[in-house]
Give the backbone structure.
Amino acid sequence: MPKISINTGICTKCNLCVEVCPKKIFNLVNKSFPEIKNEETCIECGHCLAICPANAVEYPSIKKAEVIGKANKSLLIINPVLASIRSVRKFKDINIEENIINDLINTASLAPAASNARHVEFLIINNKTVMRDMEKLVIRHFKNLLKKMNPFVKAIIYLFSRDYYHYIKQTRPSIVSLVEQYENGKAPIFRDPPHVIIIYAPKVNPMSKDNCDGQMHYFRLAAHAKGLGSCVIGYAMNSHKALEKYLKIGKKNKIFGVLTFGYPKYNYSKMIFRKSGRIFMN
């Protein structure tokens, strides 16, 4: 059975599928119905399905029920959503239902991917013991980093890269604070959330980070829309190798995103609209 077919009974010969296909799979010959060639190169991006006004393009792998129109693209809707999302670090001690988490991951999977490669994986962590172990691993990494931030090493760094030297100098107080908080019984990295999500993909794919970033931020938006909060844990990425080994995600994979999420302890009721960066037009 072919991967793609054209229902000639309803096709209007509008040529839109030919125009938008990134792999040039559709070919228009003598103003007839589009012909399909080299379909083995299809990445199933769905452009042809999304643009066809007659719903004449058919995929065995994508059900008709999954193609729904028409999209509302109003910025009046999206801007308040984006302006109201916050990095939530304090959560209620309530677990999120499994079906809601599945809905969030399904929404995250709507994010674009390079060449439509769908290799992003999610690991949901609810176990407090596992979270404490992860906290310990990240803090251990920072303790080792502090040992390297001695005057001799910093002097060498200064000789080769003053920018990196100033970055280290600026970062050190924050790292010292994290270690001190941990030694005083706090959890300054993950902050004892109800859930942690680990997002990973094959390390061999140079676009894996971009693919994971896209799904991570779609996940955050979906969580926000459901009244949930989330926070990107950038500190955890500093010790991703230790976390990968501990969580046994496989030697071929790499962690590209770490999030905490749950029901917010506090309600942020206002929107914050940011100024844009400098804009250059050529």
Notes: The first helix runs from residue 16 to 20.
